[in-house]
Amino acid sequence: MIAALWPALAALGAGLVLFATAAGAPAVLALLLGGAAAAELLWALAVLRAGRVVAPRGAVAGGAIGVLGAGFLLLTGPLALVPFVALFIFHWSIAIAGVVALRRGADRRAPARVGVDGQLADQRAPAEVVAGGQLAHQPRVSAARIEPAGSAAAVGTLPRSRSAGSFTLVLVAEALLVAAIATPALAASEAGEFAVPHGTFGHGHAGH
Question: Which of 67, 130, 138, 164 has the highest CB neighbour count under 10 A?
Fold first, then answer.
């Protein structure tokens, strides 16, 4: 779940920047950007719900299209430099997360290595010499399987408090990083430029 947090939060940040860009774009472009932003928000929610990167091929394709599209908008005018940098970082992160998920899936589907005699190579037991001079196969005991009786591995689960604490720390840190990237991009968009400053009303009077 922790590994899927960053691409999900990056998709949320990218969706917000795209919505802000769509607010100041022409009608047709605004519809395209709004649809892309909605798709990114839905994908982020799906990743958070599943606890893993869903549709990794789509994530790779969407990240690449997002980077290229942001570059096109930067060159043609609707997108400023700061929002472009934010979208580049977010979409690049999504694409990399998709590539990593695809590689992990390929490793899990890889066939087991087979020995010369047709047996699985990692399941063959070592031979030992017994009294009659014959070879007897004894089951292999892996040292990695031997755990102290009171250890967390012997119980089979990590302490929940430690796992929840790590998740919370990672979530807060990555959320702050997304906010640090997305906030200047939102402020630099056309919608952000015309937004009413904090602490003031529409007519410019200071708030109390």
Answer: 67
